[in-house]
């Protein structure tokens, strides 16, 4: 253990920037809370609402990175931490209110707005596969030196309340980047492909696991350039911009999940 700690301290001294690269903290619905947990030789396990959250080494001990759902009530919340020596501790944090705007889009194809029973069967099966993919947990430390996955214009932002043909829908859980069909989409950070498919709403899509419950999702692709199980480097092409699934034009819909919670992707890169 002492040797491991010495190695860790050595690495901390060598690459402080690597270890300091964290998402921007935003303790609000759709944001990320970063909580100092304290020192220990072994990495503790932390949970928020029974979901395991990322715990990473920081300058002054372990840090928990908690993805906060858009539906979370502002006010006091806490995570539970289980330490290797059997201790448990609770760490409180305060969630502030955050106002998101609204987005209204019109989809001409009625089937994509109010799917029939056959389509609903397909949609339910796809949701189950996606839920399963989001359950992925690997112990590799995520590399938060994210780059943008594509070049384009930011259109619909994260968190907007959505109306499709004037019907209320779930809030927009990603960031839309519009670019011409065929524009390359790159992995923003090293990861592994955990799910690819052609989904009813999302069209041709890729899910990447970056470790510790950090999972990114790319939708509406024209073409997918990777296969399930494949490892990808930062900047490696995973597909190209398209207009598959429920869209009004070619764009990338990009979601980042922490502890199975979609959070604002703009917290992951310099603006
Ligand atoms: Zn979108």
Automatic annotation (TrEMBL):
<dbReference type="InterPro" id="IPR040487">
    <property type="entry name" value="Peptidase_M23_N"/>
</dbReference>
<dbReference type="Pfam" id="PF01551">
    <property type="entry name" value="Peptidase_M23"/>
</dbReference>
<dbReference type="InterPro" id="IPR011055">
    <property type="entry name" value="Dup_hybrid_motif"/>
</dbReference>
<dbReference type="InterPro" id="IPR050570">
    <property type="entry name" value="Cell_wall_metabolism_enzyme"/>
</dbReference>
<dbReference type="GO" id="GO:0004222">
    <property type="term" value="F:metalloendopeptidase activity"/>
</dbReference>
<dbReference type="InterPro" id="IPR016047">
    <property type="entry name" value="M23ase_b-sheet_dom"/>
</dbReference>
<feature type="domain" description="M23ase beta-sheet core">
    <location>
        <begin position="171"/>
        <end position="265"/>
    </location>
</feature>
<feature type="domain" description="Peptidase family M23 N-terminal">
    <location>
        <begin position="27"/>
        <end position="96"/>
    </location>
</feature>
<dbReference type="Pfam" id="PF18421">
    <property type="entry name" value="Peptidase_M23_N"/>
</dbReference>
<protein>
    <submittedName>
        <fullName>Peptidase M23</fullName>
    </submittedName>
</protein>
